[in-house]
Amino acid sequence: MGLQVAFKPLGIVIALIFISIPFVVRTVEPVLLEFETSMEEAGASLGATRLQIFTRIIFPNVFPALLTGFALAFARGVGEYGSVIFIAGNIPYVSEIVPLLIVIKLEQYDIEGATAIALTMLVISFLLLFLINLLQLWVRKRSGQL
Predict the structure, then answer these.
(1) Is 3 within a domain?
(2) Residue 136: alpha-carbon gap to chain centroid
(3) What residue numbers bound the domain in which 137 lies?
(4) CB 72 within 8 A of CB 92
(5) Structure pTM?
(6) What is the b/e burial string over 14-27, where b = at least 16 CB atoms within 10 angstroms of the residue's CB?
(7) How many domains does the chain contain in total?
(8) Cα(first)–Cα(last) distance of the chain, in Å?
(9) What does the pLDDT profile of the chain (146 residues) look like in tens digits?
(10) Does 1 reside within a domain?
């Protein structure tokens, strides 16, 4: 096939997708299980096409869970070290990952640099968690549970 994945950004993306996809599945699956098919049937009986049923009935109900799952997957991917380190190779400006940069800084006894990178990752993680909580609050208000 001629597609090289190892030591390339594409390999990192594939590894992170493989690692993070359970977070998306875990958030979307309960929503799909609780979804009532009578809403789809009502739309179809009123003459809606399959695309209209998806865009106006299914997708608005799944979207908040999907967004939450992607945010959790991104937060997981930001801090992933173990699985990605084997595929990344740490080629400067090509396949460097943030957790490896922290390890390199620590090995060079650059505690301040490692702390700065880790603090930046921590702030990003807290912001993502805050956004996820805001999204969940919005979903609860929208569905009348609050």
Answers:
(1) no
(2) 15
(3) 9-143
(4) no
(5) 0.70
(6) ebbeebbeebbeeb
(7) 1
(8) 53
(9) 677 777 777 888 888 888 889 999 999 999 989 888 888 888 889 998 999 999 888 888 888 888 888 888 887 887 777 777 777 777 777 777 788 888 889 999 999 999 999 999 889 888 888 887 887 788 778 766 66
(10) no
